[in-house]
Amino acid sequence: MTEDTDSQGTAEPDGSGRIRTENVGQFRRRLAEGVAMAPSPAQVFVLVLVLTVAFVTPLTAALTHQGTANDGAAGNATDPGAVDEAWQRFFDEMGDGGEDVKREAAGPSWSRADWPVMPNDDLTAALTGEWAADPEIKEAGKKISAKAAEKGVSLTDEDVKRAVLDSLRALMLIRAYRIRGHLVAELDPLGLRDHGERPELDPKSYGFTEQDMDRPIFIDNVLGLQIASLREILAIVKRTYCGTFALQYMHISDPEQAGWLKERIEGFDKEIRFTQTGRKAILNKMVEAEGFEKYLHVKYMGTKRFGLDGGESVIPAMEQIIKRGGNLGVEEIVIGMPHRGRLSVLANVMGKPYRAIFHEFQGGSFKPDEVDGSGDVKYHLGASSDREFDGNSVHLSLTANPSHLEAVNPVVIGKVRAKQDQWKDADRTKVLPILLHGDAAFAGQGVVAECFGLSGLKGHKTGGTMHLVVNNQIGFTTAPHFSRSSPYPTDIALMVEAPIFHVNGDDPEAVVHAAKVATEYRQKFHKDVVIDIICYRRFGHNEGDEPMFTNPLMYKKIKQQKTTLALYTERLVRDGLIPEGEIEDMKAAFQSHLADEFEAGKDYRPNKADWLDGRWSHLDRKDEDYQRGETAVKPATFEEIGRALSTPPDNFALHKTVGRQLEAKAQMFKAGKGFDWATAEALAFGSLLIEGYPVRLSGQDSARGTFSQRDSALIDQDTEDRYLPLNHIREGQAQYEVVDSMLSEYAVLGFEYGYSLAEPNALTLWEAQFGDFANGAQIMFDQFVSSGESKWLRMSGLVCLLPHGYEGQGPEHSSARLERFLTMCGGDNWIVANCTTPANYFHILRRQLHRTFRKPLILMTPKSLLRHKMAVSRTEEFVTGSSFHRVLWDDAEYGNSDTELLPDDEIRRVVMCSGKVYYDLLEERDNRGIDDVYLMRIEQFYPFPAMSMVKELERFKGADMVWCQEEPKNQGAWSFIEPNLEWVLSRIKARHKRPSYAGRPAAASPATGLAKQHKAQQEALVDAALTIEGK
Fold first, then answer.
1. How many CB atoms lie within 10 A of CB 305?
2. What is the 3-state secondary structure (H, E, C) of 40-69?
3. Are 824 and 781 contacting, i.e. CB atoms less than 8 angstroms apart?
4. Which residue pairs from 20-25 have beta carbons closer than 8 angstroms and sit at least 24 positions apart in sequence?
5. What pTM does this model have?
6. Which residues of 194-223 are buried (b: 16+ CB within 10 A; e: fewer)?
7. What DSSP designation does 879 have?
8. How far apart are alpha carbons 656 and 449 in whole angstroms?
9. How far apart are CA 462 and CA 972, in angstroms?
10. What's the distance, Cα to Cα, between the start and end of the chain in Å?
11. CA 373, 379, 385, 388: dihedral to nearest 10 degrees?
12. Strand, coil or helix: what is 998?
């Protein structure tokens, strides 16, 4: 909100010198509801007069517009003294005759005082906004009189009027502090923040003077007091809203939430108070936090560690969240954070041995030598541990992440959602996500807003995330006024009405108190909450940087700034909690402990890789041999799923078209043939559900499917009730969850990836609206999905469904950019496939869970093939004896083509391809009657099925070898497939050692937007693939 939110005045002095009240009812209602911002001094003056007239004097009728607009003008025309001398001189100089002025002011001669009729009923009030005053305000005078009577004091009308005015002014002042007090709070440890002029917080703006400071004012328990002086009121609101702790909460529209926060912090007895034990606990964590950073700074001078120096109070805050969360039912906490302060969190919160961290500084690995993987730098690594407070054990998990700021956020909340599902935690209070942020990234990275967007959605909510912003007031070298347009980096959280606790990082008690209240709020209201820890960064972005190059004023101040520990120690000594020299003994003891750990780090060897534990314990690393997996289903199971898919519930108003689709499905099962893509997918899902594996599908419009092919949620046309046939196959089955996600790729894909990290025993799928929409999530593919296992030993079985194929729909709806995914292939990091039959799609989905390991699956899915007459399968391709085929034969060998091919040794050309283009080739070959060209489909690109290709191509050693694709030559699979096919052809000693290319020429854009040009290109590439020169 800005200062001039309410500057559109509803009441102001008019030219007559009287108060013109244009919409007083609306103004009163906004005041009572707490919508209006604190008014300017002029508005305050006007408001006080209006309220006085409305609530204390008998002139209420004037404020409800019962009278004409000319009444005031007429009165002033007959009484020139009603305006001051300046206005009198102004009117005299106009030269109007006195009688003329009076007639003009009185209005037309035909006007009537009783017309037009001004109804005063509720309906009119609702339409005009001219509501009667709220009862409690109307009764203010009576309350004051009653209180005086109790004390035996008799009040005159003038006394009551003044008391009511005092009450109203005081309440307005209190409200102004609630809304805007944080703007002048003592939040910046460096004192660099310019608060500016805030007249709305000055009692003078409300008509109070120095003489009024000690006069008793009736405030009716607003601050927990019946009566308070202005001096007492200011002391309470300044302490509450303008100290080192400042809560921003008046934007919250839910009165219960706002009221709870107000009651939690506001009042004469609500000071931040800790017991001696609590203060010593805070001190101990501060000693550890500062001592660890200083030790690293001395031992590894200039080495990157991204220290927490200047923001150490984050550590006791994290401890408080764990402790208070455990008291309130939290069983697990999942943490995501940037590199800044990560080593301190690993050591001082997660309990990672100091010796292990020193071992990594000395060049050692975080994993045993026999475990494969590329690894990562120490300030990107994760960890897990168990911490116990007050008899409550809480499992902690810090998620590994790359340097891409905020990218880990959706991964963390996805992991939390999976764990909540495992706990069957409907209230979402047992698993808590905590995200740490830098101020520049929190304001600048769009994925932050995407995650806030997910926070309240049924398919993605986690009961609220706790956000700790380590606001060191700089982003690398960029000052806040260059990096954001809002007053605070946390203003993005206003979009979900999250409360924001602004705290001074140099006051650890304020930070810990904020953490405690924020934890209680999250557990009670299941909403996001933000703690803005305003601190500083003692050194450069990394310890080798020189910040004076770009931020000399800030760093001159920082060099003079005492450490947070030093300031807190002085405070405790001043309060008599510890003797003056005790802190030095504590520091020395901790430094001695670190020195011992440093020596132990020289010989430290990790004895176990941190993976494949818990729910992953039944899985293993991928072995060398190909695992086909048991993916076929029994015929009885097949029929059982079919009945569920084709039978709507009784008395369910189906859309006619959907009803016909269900009838078509029933016919497929009856005939045992013609199974299309969507039915095969539903069969894969249903069979896994029966086996006890949940299925979660998320994406844009995934319930229906972008191409109206899936319809996995039937919608009653009368009530919009949803019915999921897959959840009604049999009793005791697992559940199918389909989520129509918000219009985001980055955060939603990250969420589903996080879900798959925590749940290996569910099929988790993310579907792009069109394949190239995945471009918006490229960071997730690059940094997490493709390399997470190699870097951090974290398996994922996530399936990505990317619609792909050239049907003339233009550059943005043709290609899923297959080439990008193939370029990132290496080290068996994931599976990339492009299936051409529904049955093969069925088997590859089931294979994800019927192996002893998990790998992400990047699947090019079809569009036109969803309803292609030849892209169908038969019952025998799903049931016992069937499996996934990485390489598929020509349909002529299956009897699905009119062409009868020549014997293998007479085949003159083998055309290899994948996806939709196969059916274009098949149709054209059959039309031409060609019998010496064999069409071979590569269904799985990576891991490349080298030995299967050797076996199949040995049949055609003397034939030409052609790779055909729809994509341009610099895109698609060509660059990936050519060297692999060359290896195969060399291995079998084929006559042609390299394949030739048939497809679109290299292009900047994936496809043309012109239908005629697309058609010509498609015909040309098919012709090039099938035409043998000289024949």
1. 25
2. CHHHHHHHHHHHHHHHCCCCHHHHCCCCCC
3. yes
4. 20/72, 21/50, 21/62, 21/63, 21/65, 23/129, 23/130, 24/50, 24/54, 24/63, 24/64, 24/130, 25/63, 25/64, 25/125, 25/128, 25/129, 25/130, 25/131, 25/132
5. 0.84
6. eeeebebbebebbebeeebeeeebbbeebb
7. B
8. 40
9. 39
10. 77
11. 180
12. strand
Q: In this structure, which amino acid lies at residue 534?
A: I
Which of 464, 461, 465, 458 lies closest to 417, judged by CA?
A: 461
Q: What is the pLDDT of residues 168-189, one digit of tens each?
A: 999 999 999 999 999 999 999 9
Residues with Cβ within 8 Å of 595's Cβ and at least 6 positions away in sequence, in order, are none
The set of residues, in sequence order, having a beta carbon less than 8 Å from that of 551 and lying 6+ positions away, is 474, 477, 479
Give the Cβ contact number of residue 229 at 10 Å. 16
Nearest to 857 by CA among 835, 889, 875: 835
How far apart (Å, rounded) are the C-alpha atoms in residues 230 and 209?
A: 10
pLDDT < 50 stretches in the chain: 1-74, 134, 136
**CB contact at 8 A, 402 and 379:** no
Instruction: Establish how many alpha carbons lie within 13 A of residue 860's alpha carbon, considering only the half-sphere containing its beta carbon.
Output: 32
Q: Could you tell me which residues come within 8 angstroms of residue 103 by beta carbon, excluding any fewer than 6 positions away?
A: none
Residue reference for tokens 């994931």: 830
d(Cα 352, Cα 288) in Å, to the nearest integer?
13
Query: DSSP states of 695-721 as a string?
Result: EEEEETTTTT-TTS----SEE-TTT--
Give the tens place of pLDDT for each residue, 526-583: 999 999 999 999 888 887 788 899 989 998 999 999 999 999 999 999 999 999 889 9
- pLDDT tens-digit map of 736-784: 999 999 999 999 999 999 999 999 999 999 999 988 899 999 999 999 9
The percent of the chain in helix, strand and coil, each rounded to the nearest 5, is 45, 10, 40
Q: Which two tokens stand for residue 492?
A: 């993005």
